[in-house]
Design a protein that fits this description.
single chain; 714 residues; 13-stranded mixed β-sheet; 24 helices
Length: 714
């Protein structure tokens, strides 16, 4: 077993991660004096953007106030929960201090928790500690609009970054277009409407059809020759070979007619443009044609919205190719015989630029990461000393492997959950789910699909804590969606997003040294930037570069790795979007735990009904629905537990209103009827909204910790 890389071990314990977990537990035993692998206690913070971060802050404050946080061995976070988890790991690490600093360290107890333990008062007898905690909490409250924080960065900055990503995405498109131009040049030899064109495309079509029929005829001849062996091994292999080859003539035919139709549309629109107005463009003519087709709207309205978006994306890609063909016509008209030289030179220069440009540094990911870092991982000394500068220079270069445990300060071990995109995996499980859970932690980073590499070696040790947190929250990304489903998992939508470089995700080296020996290699717009558009077969665990996205695209409660580690007590905060109380994230986590680990979580419909706001008879004096409770306690049965072993426990906390929450929370609800399930698209919290969710988390967690069944567990 290598120290730098641990591979998936088929048939081993802990679902193939036995060696990884043994290493991890050895590290915890050295740095947490009371660590007991048979009594692991953990907290999981769910996705949900800034809403989850603020709600989970209240829960963590309550745990610290009751001196329970020091007993927690693992902190597992995903997406929005990772905002807070990353913030706490950063502040617990002491890496925010400058050399020679005399600032007091933050801890996990009632007196030194980084953000205080209530939000209304601070418990430390030390006034300096109280001031520091108050300053940090005030910083979070006042910067809930983290994407447009002010201090020179506004909504226009955000729009400008998106525009830049789109423009830079055209670098990849131009590199591809350079080669596409060559194909269009060949097509331009035969102009539609000419006898040669009709002859060319007619003969091409007939040849492909005859070739396709010929394949079937050849197969029947061979099958007849082997009729006595049709049930033999040879006959079976022949059928498999034929069924593998069969699609290719159709693919070739579709590609030929796609390019032919693109050229036909371009020429037709060009002709139409001249008829509409002298000097008008192909694009203008296209809009004119769309305007004339307004009578189609009533029919389009019958198409489901998701399908409308897919069709719109397909038409946009088709339109870009039409414009590429039109560009060929213009180049030929202006460049004459030098057209091919111009195209070849352009292809070389653009391809070189695509090879040199690092794809991660120019996408929207970088802006998103920096704003998260400035809000949740700031230069704390500047904040606690009253400096108004909004900076995060210290965290900017802090790698994840530097976030180490300290036996003097029993902070939990942080698992940052992301999703590795595997839409073209040869393994049916990964392909069906669209990915696999990929952890980034101080010791090791990786997944079942790739194995786990020591984080200090992974990507050359350059994955910083802010980058890992941003990856875990990369909600908008091609080829990924919640639990492997959603519109952005569609191939056409994904290709269009890739063309315009609309992604929050991140390309990394494959942890597997067989696939990627050089962990220092930087992903570019050329490789792997082309893969999503031209080489989609590389979107799997065998590629030298892999793409990571929001951990919620695999599992949005951050429970998966805790179930793998057989934690005996898990407190999970579910602050995901669930206005209809369908408990989809909980169902997804339970299903994956059962299938992959043989774990059974005993939660009934009756248990969930207690958490669901309902009308009479339970709330005759309320003017909106409330729930009986905001948390539940469930039993967890692990596959290898012996009969005499007590089952594990899962404390499930939900962002739901119960009757006994405070008057201020109910007051906020009356003014904001969608609370506490306001849309995740709202990532611009003001102080009042932030405080409403934080206080809700605080009050629910206090009730939970006073529960007679839960008290003895922690």
């Amino acid at each position: 077993m290598s120290d730098n890389y641990i591979g998936y071990k088929s048939g081993s314990d802990y679902a193939g991660a036995e060696d990884l977990i043994e290493k991890e537990w050895h590290y915890l035993a050295q740095n947490r004096p009371d660590f007991d692998r048979n009594n692991i206690r953990a907290v999981a913070l769910s996705g949900g953007g800034i809403r989850s971060a603020s709600f989970c802050l209240g829960v963590m404050q309550a745990l610290a106030a009751n001196d329970k946080l020091k007993k927690i061995d693992y902190l597992s976070t995903v997406s929005g929960g990772g905002y807070l988890g990353g913030s706490l790991s950063w502040l617990w690490s002491d890496l925010w201090k400058k050399k020679g600093s005399r600032s007091k360290s933050f801890g996990v107890g009632p007196d030194d928790f980084p953000y205080g333990t209530e939000g209304r008062k601070f418990n430390s007898a030390d006034p300096v500690a109280n001031r520091n905690q108050a300053s940090m909490l005030r910083h979070l409250r006042q910067n809930g609009k983290y994407l447009t924080p002010g201090n020179g960065i506004s909504a226009l900055s955000f729009v400008s970054i998106i525009f830049r990503s789109i423009v830079m995405g055209f670098v990849s498109l131009m590199a591809i277009a350079s080669f596409i131009f060559a194909l269009f040049y060949l097509i331009n030899v035969f102009q539609p409407g000419q006898a040669e064109a009709r002859f060319f495309w007619g003969i091409a079509g007939i040849s492909i059809v005859l070739g396709y029929l010929g394949l079937h005829f050849l197969y029947m001849i061979v099958l007849a020759a082997l009729k006595h062996a049709s049930n033999s091994k040879r006959g079976y292999k022949l059928r498999r070979l034929f069924e593998t080859i069969l699609p290719w003539p159709l693919i070739v035919a579709l590609i030929c007619y796609l390019f032919a139709s693109i050229h036909w549309v371009q020429v037709s629109l060009s002709g139409y443009a001249l008829e509409v107005a002298s000097g008008s463009t192909v694009l203008g003519a296209l809009f004119g044609a769309i305007g004339k087709g307004s009578s189609w709207r009533k029919y389009i309205s019958l198409i489901p919205h998701s399908l409308q978006l897919i069709l719109a994306a397909a038409l946009m890609i088709f339109g870009l190719l039409v414009l590429a063909d039109y560009a060929v016509v213009l180049l030929k008209a202006t460049g004459g015989d030098s057209y091919l030289y111009i195209t070849a030179t352009g292809a070389f220069l653009v391809t070189l630029l695509a090879y040199l440009l690092p794809i991660n540094n120019i996408s929207i990911h970088r802006y998103y990461r920096d704003r998260l870092m400035e809000t949740f991982m700031p230069d704390a000394e500047k904040i606690i000393h009253g400096d108004k500068a909004f900076e995060a220079e210290m965290a900017n270069g802090t790698p994840v492997h530097d976030i180490k445990l300290n036996s003097k300060n029993p902070a939990p071990y942080h698992l940052i959950n992301t999703n590795i995109i595997l839409v073209e995996s040869d393994i049916a499980k990964f392909r069906g789910r669209g990915g696999d859970n990929f952890i980034i932690s101080p010791q090791y980073s990786g997944s079942n699909a790739t194995g786990w590499r020591k984080t200090k070696e992974f990507c050359g040790g350059k994955i910083t804590l802010p980058t890992a947190v941003a990856i875990s929250g990369a909600a908008a990304n091609p080829d990924s969606g919640v639990a492997g489903r959603g519109l952005t998992t569609n191939v056409i939508i994904s290709v269009l997003m890739s063309i315009f470089n609309l992604r929050l995700g991140y390309w990394t080296s494959n942890p597997d040294p067989v696939r990627q020996a050089n962990q220092q290699k930087i992903p570019s717009y050329l490789i792997p930037g082309f893969w999503e558009m031209l080489r989609r077969n590389k979107m799997n665990e065998t590629a030298e570069f892999v793409q990571l996205s929001d951990g919620g695209h695999f599992e949005n409660l951050a429970l998966y790795e805790l179930f793998r580690r057989r934690a005996r007590l898990i407190i999970v905060c579910d602050a995901g979007a669930d206005a209809d109380y369908e408990f989809g994230d909980l169902a997804n986590a339970i299903e994956k735990a059962r299938v992959d680990f043989g774990v059974k979580v005993d939660i009934s419909r009756k248990d969930l009904d207690e958490l669901t706001p309902a009308t009479s008879p339970r709330q005759q004096d309320m003017d909106y629905p409330v729930a009986n409770k905001s948390y539940l306690l469930a039993r967890v049965y692990y596959a290898d537990d012996k009969a005499e072993v007590e089952p594990g426990r899962l404390v499930y906390i939900k962002t739901t209103l119960s009757r006994n929450v405070g008057a201020d929370i109910h007051g906020y609800k009356r003014v904001n009827p969608f609370f506490p399930d306001q849309t995740t698209a709202d990532q611009f919290f003001d102080e009042v909204q932030f405080e409403a969710y934080r206080e809700l988390g605080w009050q629910i967690a206090q009730d939970m910790l006073n529960d007679a069944e839960i008290k003895p567990l922690l």
